[in-house]
Amino acid sequence: MEVVNKKWPIEKLFAQREEILKTWETGNEVADIKKGIEYQKSIPKAKNFAKKLKEAKENKVTLVQPRAGVALVNEHIALLQFLQDEGGADLLPSTIDSYTRQNRYAEAQKGIEESVSSGRSLLNGFPAVNHGLENCRKVVESLKSPVQVRHGTPDARLLAEIALAAGFTDYEGGGISYNIPYAKDVSLEKTIYYWQYVDRLVGYYQENGVEINREPFGPLTGTLVPPSISHSVAILEAILAAEQGVMNLTLGYGQCGNLIQDVAAIQTLEELAEEYLVNNGHENRQLTTVFHQWMGGFPQDEAKAFGVISWGASAAALAKATKVIVKTPHEAMGIPTKEANAQGLRTTKQIINMLKDQTLPESKQLLLEKEMIKKETRAILDATYKIGEGDWAKGAIRAFESGIIDIPFAPSRFNAGRILPARDNDGAIRLLDSGDLPLTKEIQDFHNEKIAIRGKAEDRDPSFQMVIDDIYAIGKGFLVGRPS
Amino acid sequence: MEVVNKKWPIEKLFAQREEILKTWETGNEVADIKKGIEYQKSIPKAKNFAKKLKEAKENKVTLVQPRAGVALVNEHIALLQFLQDEGGADLLPSTIDSYTRQNRYAEAQKGIEESVSSGRSLLNGFPAVNHGLENCRKVVESLKSPVQVRHGTPDARLLAEIALAAGFTDYEGGGISYNIPYAKDVSLEKTIYYWQYVDRLVGYYQENGVEINREPFGPLTGTLVPPSISHSVAILEAILAAEQGVMNLTLGYGQCGNLIQDVAAIQTLEELAEEYLVNNGHENRQLTTVFHQWMGGFPQDEAKAFGVISWGASAAALAKATKVIVKTPHEAMGIPTKEANAQGLRTTKQIINMLKDQTLPESKQLLLEKEMIKKETRAILDATYKIGEGDWAKGAIRAFESGIIDIPFAPSRFNAGRILPARDNDGAIRLLDSGDLPLTKEIQDFHNEKIAIRGKAEDRDPSFQMVIDDIYAIGKGFLVGRPS
Amino acid sequence: MSSNTIVIGVIGADVHAVGNKILDYAFTQAGFKVVNIGVLASQEEFVKAAVETGAVAILVSSLYGHGEIDCRGLRDKCEEAGIGDILLYVGGNLVVGKKEWEPVKKTFLNMGFDRAYPPGTAPETSIEDLKNDLSQGE
Amino acid sequence: MSSNTIVIGVIGADVHAVGNKILDYAFTQAGFKVVNIGVLASQEEFVKAAVETGAVAILVSSLYGHGEIDCRGLRDKCEEAGIGDILLYVGGNLVVGKKEWEPVKKTFLNMGFDRAYPPGTAPETSIEDLKNDLSQGE
């Protein structure tokens, strides 16, 4: 299979979707794509994700969105209504369970049945494919705000067909961001191809007058990911999506914890994406940003967890991200109760509202951080384009093969796994080992120097132990994992 | 009575203390001042407030301290031990009840008795005078960390005698900051005189080798107080205390909510105080800072309150204040349970620890804010000195008479009450009406312009309604009280 | 009853002045003649001010948790002074600590208050209540 | 028993790789020979790896809340494969939602696990337990 970054003729989509819709019995419910488009057109503007994001961006407001999903339809609706009414969520999710993410619909069915018999959700999300079209529409219709599908599915074609026909107006994921952090054995050729299908489908809805928003998954493994890595993946997926006709994109970033780096990251993400999209012939795309509150380990104590959540909310607000994905005080314990989820939302919203008139002012440090992120990201993306001989899809595949792009702590065997990130003395994420990233000497020296300052402050040589200390640090109450 | 800023001969203190110790029966327990000094010298270094603050300042660490006090001794000890062990408080308080603050010891006694019979605290603090020397020593001895007396007492002479003899190593308050926001009918002549007694007493302990820390009460009325006002009072009280021999001073500031203004305030407070102390001949004083989390109205909802607390913790950490006084998720409901108090501490500490390696970098906005605070404070202090004909005590009294210093929303009839503060469009506190503050045209124009920008954004003329909206805003989830 | 004079103040050893100044402003704006005796006000000062000005209501604030001790006996003092049927309102943080509101309210109504308000009540609420209570008394 | 080989992996449809990489590092540092089958591992893969390498223990991680479904029957599969008395440990976020730990632990011990660990357990804890369990087996 050779995947290239070229818009699919619509016949290719239509031919393939016949096969896709057969992969589970609910597929035939969405066979007539016109009905999906018609249904989408009946959805009021206030419930369209792209439109609500547009308004927020214009008003420089940061919207709040939780993660949430349970096994059964009525319980799922009750959960989302609670987060909407008691949590004040501006945007709603339907987080999909892990069996569905691996296309194991039979196991998801077993999870649904056991959830019915045991009276509690035995799935960690909402199995949208198994529930089928009408149940999914019931979810969308029961809520006042736009709903997005959030998942982690390498092959999300059937899920996309059902979600779009059911009135979901935003779809998370991408051929890289839902593969490398979410799969072990699936090639990038395959997932980029699967996601071209999804993007072409979104593009077709768009051509028929329906605005669907797409969101590459920004935080990747959520563990000490340097901004230039996640930016590179986000921009690659934006280009791949735009080629297939996607007009509305939300690009994501997971909080690192150092305020200057976080603000610099959100600002450069939008600036760089705009630049690369326009340079690749994709004008007039609606670009928004999403800031993920700390994705790593949380403290067990709820009061401390509120502190972590709040610091994420503060950074999101000062960076003026278009939306923020919210954690809960139960984060360390697994999936939260609906009450805890609503608490995380209310804490976040209080801070967002208090800070809506404030930004982080320009400073020497902020400008330097932005400059370094831009240089690094351009180095990675330009090497990707080059190795792809001018094709972004081929470039992405080869860049992962050769370690030009390398995501720390990813489970996929298609990821080089040679880089090692660690915090510097101010808590910003740097490269302890840059593996085969195509970085100039200037950038390398910058990282080395930053890490060396920390090593000196801690009187130890940087090593994997430092990385482990950093991974556990926030759970123990600190950002930088210092020796005690 | 004419009060002047001149160090008391020790005989003056000794003569007066004979009278003071007679004002309640426990006074005679501390008659022999040498025994108090001896006892203080037996206290280990780790339990001395001034020494712990010194270490924190050197290490650029922000310490956390709660407010707490209940009617009965054992319950008070249990409360403080809980905050120390479960809350992780670095510094401990004994907050004094409101009857003791007004020297109404008989009513405090009634409160103690009713608390015993009803089984719950009917006082809002610890009545240290009534409990007397041995009980107070029991409090200090039951704890691992230094303990401070926090109150709001215009005439705190007897309380100071008992507290110092009992081993408390920090004493909050001052002749202005514990009068104007805490009394209605007590003249500044009287309270400055009373606090000269307290400071001379601390100075005497100091001369005998005992380090006691003093802390003027920074936030004043806690309601939209412009930094230049609270800075002027803090520096005045620092000069008055230093003259009586106080060597260790913690100057305070109550969070306004705009990050740049808050960081600028903490930085200028220390810089200005150092400058004025040295210029008045007081070298080598240990100057530290305390940042008070939001002192105004809180949201009722605990999750939202955690947001307000966290934003205060973030500002304290980024400003590198030496300590932060912590609010609790029960703030809107009155005095908190010990669990809620410990939660506020843990949330705060999580943030302080995460941010300990970060600061707010220098920016044009930060420099401007610092410059304006300095200009304003110097204008007020220099006019105070001038009207006092070179005497800071006389100057303070006359400055309040003439409105050169004016604290918004103060209950005292000795306060002019002519200024009106309001937030600007970024949430910083400005002057809507500067009353008789001795501000130059440049400063006036700065305030007027800032307020005008907000008025324009809200399409309304600035008025008292805007002030009221700002006072209620945080309780409703916002910093700036915009019309809805 | 044609007077629209009311007495407001903060009772006991309480010095919380901000809400007091806002109530003063809000009730004045709403057309009442406000006699504000300020903070640190004793029961005697409330009663004296009400008698001297012919007030139709006394609005007591207590923000520091000692409300229960401070307010006990205020109705008796009003009766002794010959204004036994004056309207008595109370509001603020009336008790120490976070408590269920209904029992607290009951305590204060049993003390002889006509209305008691929980923390965070907006001035508009009590203004409306007062207007209603006064028009019913006519 | 002289082997110090252990099998580690993340069971089911779970892709959480970070803890897996840290366990790999920590157990290797502690002197064990670690066979890491990675994320998305089936019961069959665990058993097969243990048989092939003569492992003395299988350490199962589950971070996504489906642990109860995914782990049921693992002990039976070990018995069928002739390694019925191999040590079985499990840890992570084993159930959906915040639950009391003791009942959860009991569920997994009843399934045939020798030890079960709550969220947030440090690698050192299980390393020490494993060393103890192995020395008692000698």
What would you say about this model in short?
With 484 residues, chain A is α/β, with parallel strands linked by helices. Chain A has helices at 10-20, 33-41, 49-58, 73-85, 98-101, 105-118, 128-141, 157-166, 188-207, 227-243, 259-279, 302-319, 338-354, 364-387, 392-402, 441-458, 464-473; strands spanning 63-65, 92-95, 147-150, 170-172, 213-215, 248-254, 286-292, 323-325, 420-423, 429-433. Chain A contains 17 helices and ten strands.
Gap between N and C termini of chain C: 6 Å
E-strand count of chain A: 10
Low-pLDDT segments, ≥5 res of chain A: none
| Oligomerization | heterotetramer
Strand residue percentage of chain A: 5-15%
- The structure class of chain A reads alpha/beta
What is the name of the CATH superfamily of the largest domain in chain A?
Answer: Methylmalonyl-CoA mutase
Which architecture name of the domain at 1-15 and 26-58 and 80-87 and 109-133 in chain C does CATH use?
3-Layer(aba) Sandwich
Instruction: For the largest sheet of chain A, list the strands in their spatial order.
Output: 1-8-7-6-5-4-3-2
In total, how many domains does the architecture of chain A comprise? 2
Biggest sheet architecture of chain A: 8 strands, parallel
- Largest inter-chain interface? A-B, 48 and 48 residues
Percent helix of chain A: 40-55%
Subunit structure (chains C, D): Heterotetramer composed of 2 epsilon subunits (GlmE) and 2 sigma subunits (GlmS). GlmE exists as a homodimer and GlmS as a monomer.
Function (chains C, D): Catalyzes the carbon skeleton rearrangement of L-glutamate to L-threo-3-methylaspartate ((2S,3S)-3-methylaspartate).
Domain B12-binding (chains C, D): 3-138
Cofactor (chains C, D): adenosylcob(III)alamin
